[in-house]
UniProtKB/TrEMBL annotation:
Keywords, sorted A to Z: Hydrolase
Membrane spanning stretches: none
Domain Isochorismatase-like: 4-140
Source organism: Paenibacillus polysaccharolyticus
UniProt-recorded name of the protein: Nicotinamidase-related amidase
The keyword Hydrolase is assigned to this record: yes
Keyword Transport: no
GO molecular function terms noted in the UniProt entry: hydrolase activity
Amino acid sequence: MKKCLIVLDVQRGLTIQRDVSATVSKIESVMATFERKNWPIVFTKHVDEQDEESSLYRGKADYLEIVVDTKQHLVLEKNKPSAFSNSKLEKWLCDQQVEHVFIVGFNMEYCCLFTAITAEHEGFKVTLIEDASGTVNTEETYEMEGLDIPDFIGSILNWSGCIEVLYTDEFSEVYSQGVEK
């Protein structure tokens, strides 16, 4: 089963909002595994066309920059939470004969969640790597004391029975060693 990593919105405009270095490090670790295996990687870049106050507004080019090395990999722009809102993504995945997508990036409760659900709906096997998917939002953002956003969203997706949710160490154990489920 051909695999692909979708790296969502690891952009300066998000990553400067709070310390997300641990998540970015885990994203880079997953990327390194995909590169070692010669499995394709695709990046998305969220671009806000409307809200000039947004940290991802098109006019703030330095904030749109992806903060991990995209190397020669495809980078697609999107302006909605799901990466599949850019129709080029599904076509590219089909052209690459991808059947299983892995999702990492930002923000867990928007882009990661919507991309995972859409990918599953479009017929892909989906694995979300929870600790390589973060958010710049906090429990205060949602006025929900004690809320761990990545854990909450990861639990919902896992409980759905439709989407595999792993941590990076589980991903490494299952997919780096060649012993796949």
